Every structure is written in C-alpha cells, then in structure tokens.
Amino acid sequence: MDTSTHSPSQAPSAATPSVSLGNGESRISRAKDKVKLKAESVDVFYGDTQAIKSIDLDIFENEVLAFIGPSGCGKSTFLRCLNRMNDTIDICRVEGRITLDGKDIYAPERDVVLLRAQVGIVFQKPNPFPKSIYENIAYGPRLHGLAKRKAELDDIVESSLRRAGLWEEVKDRLDKPGTGLSGGQQQRLCIARTVAVSPDVILMDEPCSALDPIATAKVEQLIDELSESYTIVMVTHNMQQAARVADRTAFFHMGDLVEVDSTDNIFTNPQDQRTHDYITGRFG
Amino acid sequence: MSNLALIAMLLMLMALAYHLGLTRSRAVASHRDVRLHSRPGYYGTLVALWCGLPAFALFLLWSLFAAQLVDTLVVQQLPVDLVASLSDRELQTLMRRIAALADGRGVAGGGSPEELAAAAHMARLETIGQLSLAAVTAVVAVVGLVFARRRISPHWQARNHVERVITIALGASSAIAIFTTIGIVLSMLGEALRFFSFIHPADFFFGTVWNPRFSSAGAGAQGQFGLLPLLWGTLMVSVIALLVAIPVGLMTAIYMAEYASPWLRSVAKPIIEILAGIPTIVYGFFALTVIGPFLSMLGDLVGINIRTTSAMTAGIAMGIMIIPFVSSLSDDIITQVPKSLRDGALGLGATKSETIRQVVLPAALPGIVGAFLLAASRAIGETMIVVLAAGNNPVLHANPFEAVSTITVTIVNQLTGDMDFASPQSLVAFALGLTLFVITLGLNVIALVVVRKYRQQYE
C-alpha cells in the first residue's frame, strides 16, 4: 500500500513488487475502448506562463483515469480544461482541440452550460451550497429542468444520494443545511449533487485531499461504483489512491504529459525515468 | 510660565531622561560584563516615562482643580456682606467680571473698587499658582528621572514594565470613547427626564399632533409634543431613501464584484465612494434646486401636484447619498463569498447570473442585510438634507409628495435661535435625540449581530 517510503537507492525492480495494486487487475478488464474525451495538442497559458504543453490524450468511456504528478505540474489545470472551468479565470487561455464524443467543446457555438451538465466536476474542498441537503442536490436538476413535478425531483434527490452512499445517513434530515455535515459527508454530497444532473463524465480534482482516511475509503469505494455508469477523471496527490481506484494513470510533469498507461504498467514498469523517479519517491 | 511652555519643558526633560537611561544602561552592561534583562532602549523609555508620567499627572490634576481653588480664595477675599447679598447667579456673573478684569480684558462700565481689588488678588494668585506648578512639576520630573535611573540594573525588567504602560495607555484610549458614549447618553437621559416632568411620556410617544408653541407665549401655552408625526416623517423619508439606495447600490455592488474588469473596478469604485464624501448640505441644496423642481415638473406632466420640498425630494437625495454605503459594504461581502461556491454552481452548469442570484447572493444575504441596516440607521440620523428638502411640515399624512418633518429637523428647529433650557420647547430636543439614538442603536446592534453570524459561516 505504500510507494513513497522506498529509499532512492533501490533499483526499480526491487521497488515495484511492494506496490499494491488493489483490484487493479479486475479494473483493467472493465476498461472500454470507445473514446469519450479526446485532447489534441492542448496548450494552456496563464498570462504569459505556459502551464500545459501540447498534450494529447484519449479518455475512454467508463474508465477511471487518474492524473498524478508533483504540485504545479498542470494536472488540475488540464482537468479543468475538460469542462471549461478555466473560463472563469480571466488570464487563462486554452489552445488546441478537446472533443467530447467527437464534438469540439471549445467551438464558439458550444454552450458551456450544457457542456458542464454533461461533464460534471467535484472539487478538492467540499463546497456544499449554504442551503439544505435537499436543495443542494435539487439545484442542478432544477437548473436544467430535469424534473417536471415535485415527485420526480424527490426521486432524483433520493437516487443521487443513494448513488453517493449518503442516503441512509441523511434521509431524516434532508431539510438541514448541507454545511452541517462532516467533511466526508459534504464531499459525498457534492458528488451526489454532480450525479444529480446525470453527466456522462465526472471530473474530480483531488476529491479526498481534505478528508480523513475513513472518509477517503468511502469516497474511493464510491468512485469504484460510479465507474459502472460514468467516465471518471480524477486528479490525486496520493499514488496509492491512483493504484487502488484507477484503470489507467497519467503522469504529468512540468506541464508535460510524460506517460499514460494502465495503472499496473505505470507503477510496475514505467517507461520514462521521470515517472520512475516520481513513483519511487525520488521527488514530489 | 504658560502651560504650553511647561509641557515643552516636560517633553525636553523626557528626552533627556531617555538619553540618560540609555547611556546608563549601556554603562551598566559594559561595566559589570553582564547581560541586561532588556535592550537599552527599553531602559531609556522607562526612565523617560518615570520622568514624564507622574509630572504630567500632577499637571492634569492641577489644571482640573486650580481654577476652582483660586475662585474659592477670591470669594473669601470679597466683603462678606457683599457675598451674602448676592444670589448664586449674580455671584457667578460677578466672578466672570472679576476673571475678565484679572485677564486684562476689562468689563463694561469699568470695575467697582471691590471688583478691581479682587481681580488684582486673583491675578496674583494665578501667577503664584503657575510658578509653583512649574516648580513642583519640574521637581517631580527630576525626582522621577533620578529614581528610575538609579534603579537601572540587569534585573530590572524594563521591557515588561514598558509593555504594561503601553497596554494601560491603549486601554485608557478605548475607555475614553466608551465613557464619552455613556456620558452623552446620560446627559440626554437627564435632560429628557426633565422634559418628561413637563409632558407625560404617553403624550410624547403616542401624541399625533406636533405643535410646540414658543416659550415666550407664556407659561400657560404649553404646546403639544406628539412624536408620531415626526417618527412617521422620518420613516417615510428613510424608506424612500432605501428604496432608491438598495436596488441601485446592490446592483452596483454585483456589477463591481462579479463583472467589472479590474481596471474599471479600480476607477469606478473610488468615484462611487466619492458620493459618500460629498457634504450632506450639498446634497440638501442639490435636492432643493434640482430634484425638487424636476419632480414637480414631472408631476405637472402627469397631472399630480408635487411639492418642490417633499418627503420624495428628500428621500431621493438621501437615497443617492447612501448608495455608496450599500454598494461598498455589499461589494465587500459578495467578494468574501468563497470562489469554491461559485465553482460549484458553475460546475453544475449554472450561468453566471444564475450563480450570482441563486448561490452567491443567498450566501451573502445576511451580510447584505447588515449593510442595509447600517444604511438605514444612517438615513434615519441624516439631518441636513431633510432640513433643506423635506419642507418642515410636522403633520401626519401618507402622501410622499407632501412636505413632512423628521425627528432630526425638529431637533434643529427646537435648538436654534434663543433658547431657554428650562422650557419643554428646548428640552424636547433631548427626548427626540434619545428616541433617535435608541432607534439607530437598535438597528446597528441588529446589523452587527447579523454580520457576525455571517462571518462565522466562512472563517
């Protein structure tokens, strides 16, 4: 379960056997081969600084893809390009082409509102709205007119909370503020909120970095379950987490996508020296 | 020696004391080859404080009580039968005349021999007093200096002592503000109670007619002091002002916080805040010469009779004045709403305006309500605009296009010109002021509580 404690002096072959891959084997078998999101020579600039350098990446339907890499390597920035959350940052500029189901998401006629309904995002820090639990979930469906009657909305709220594994914990206090939940519950509430608008893809930006180990385990289990129906792209700082939940893993370094491969291969047989150094804890 | 020279002398002594303390502590440190408890600067400061503070305290005490002491001595000097023949008030007048003579200012008709003698005596006493004060202060200062300088040793915890003096000084400063507030309230309360000895509180708080005849009309003509027309006028003008300021101010705040480019923001915000810096009297005559005539022209067009000076005129001008209060405070509060909440809504596919209306504003609402309440208390206490533009007509009516009067205007009216502070006509101003104070205090307290509650949510 632990990659970061390997001493730098160990050879890669000696280091890798101790990496636990969890249920990695079964996960790979589930990976599909239909491309859901495709990035072609994507560059991202903050003002004059280039944060992402010409990245090409295919993301397949119903896979769990993890982005790993040291801080400031551009993994979050790239993730946020996938549903155009970077639009909210004034100085950020995206070049290149990103397609969802073959259609350019940066095309001028593309409606960013509909895109974000299709590609949902869960953030690093749980950010429930200062409203009731029910209203937190109902917000998205209302926004997009997904429910015509109150009963339908109730159904969406319940099924979303069930999917996020939160229903049993909150069903008696749906009218209580979402901010009153514990950190882990808040994060699952945010996942339920994202699920409620039935997206195809869910982006997760370090979803467990603000959570304790038990809450983290719950969220990881949830990601595993959600991958049945959604394509999930997650950024993580925690290599064990990537090893536990991801079908494939992409390693970012200084704005480059160094290597992307099945999680197994990345952790046991990295092709690039930088990947090797990173997963064996030589830097990071 | 004048007081100013005395203070200058004290300051110079303190500077000298600082220097002596500094050199002495350095000498101690080098001679005995030991570590001082504090840096030399602290010893210098402490010696200066020992030199200055007791002397200054003495000086203050003297200033408080010397005049009274001199007066008492002078009165004792006056012929006993003269003092006995005078009433308190006449005695006060006499003392004023003597003081004027002693200062060399002279009095109308020259002074009588007794007055002149007393004045000479007073002048002599004051000179002696000043000289002895200077001498005593200097002695105390020097004694303090020498005492403190001798105490300098490695064990003397100068830094801790200086810290304590600073703490006490800061505490005393805040106490001044608090005691002033309490003093103002008590003085208002005292005068208001005197007013209520003339007029029954029920007649004041629930009276519907405001007609305070002038006190010169004689004791029989007491007048009617009903608060309600004034309270109603105040409320009407304030509500109109808030109806103007809240929508405009809030929308300005939203635009500034969410949409404006940094450049526009940096230019526009100071310009909006200039509105708050315009003297209210200027708003008053702006209302009188521009808003009023414009409204009455508008009224002519649609066939309503609108007076130039009316609740509407004053309310609109006041509304413009408090726009920056609403916009500035709301802007700060909207900016404080964490970006993560905005991202959450945007990430679900909300548009920018949906995000603002449905997530940002509800999250900021308690703070914004606080801003509204502060603006409201400002509007209720505003005086000059209503003095000029509201028409001063203390009558209960519901037409905003008619002239009204407010509590503040009435206070101005009752306290300008010749006053007799024993009559209810003047004393009513204190009762009105107290009412106003209670209303604005209540609003401020509610605003503070609301704002504090909001803060707890995000920190």
Characterise the protein shown here.
Chain A has 284 residues and is an alpha/beta fold. Chain A has one domain (12-279): Rossmann fold, CATH 3.40.50.300. Chain A is 36% helix and 24% strand. Chain A is built from twelve helices and ten strands. Chain A has helices at residues 12-15, 24-30, 75-81, 112-118, 133-143, 150-163, 167-170, 183-195, 213-226, 239-245, 263-268, 273-279, and strands spanning 35-46, 49-60, 64-68, 92-100, 103-104, 119-122, 201-205, 231-235, 248-253, 256-262. In chain A, strands 6-7-8-3-9-10 form a six-stranded mixed β-sheet, with helices on both faces. In chain A, strands 2-1-4-5 form a four-stranded antiparallel β-sheet, with helices on one face. In chain A, α5 (133-143) packs parallel to α8 (183-195), α6 packs across α8 and α8 packs parallel to α9 (213-226). Residues 1-31 of chain A have low confidence and may be disordered. Chain B is mainly α and 459 residues long. Chain B has two domains: 3-156, no CATH class; 224-458, MetI-like fold, CATH 1.10.3720.10. Helix content of chain B is 78%, strand content 1%. Chain B has helices at residues 3-31, 40-77, 80-85, 88-102, 113-151, 158-198, 201-206, 228-259, 262-277, 280-302, 311-336, 339-347, 352-381, 384-389, 407-415, 424-458, and strands at residues 210-211, 224-225. Chain B has a two-stranded antiparallel ribbon. The longest helix of chain B has 41 residues, at 158-198. Chain B is flat and about 80 Å long. Chain B starts with a helix and ends with a helix. The relative contact order of chain B is 0.09. The model of chain B has no long low-confidence stretch (mean pLDDT 86). The chains are: A alpha/beta (284), B mainly alpha (459). The A-B interface holds A 83, 85, 88, 113-117, 120-123, 125, 127-131, 139-140, 143-144, 179, 190, 193-194, 197 and B 338, 340-351, 354, 358-359, 362-363, 457.
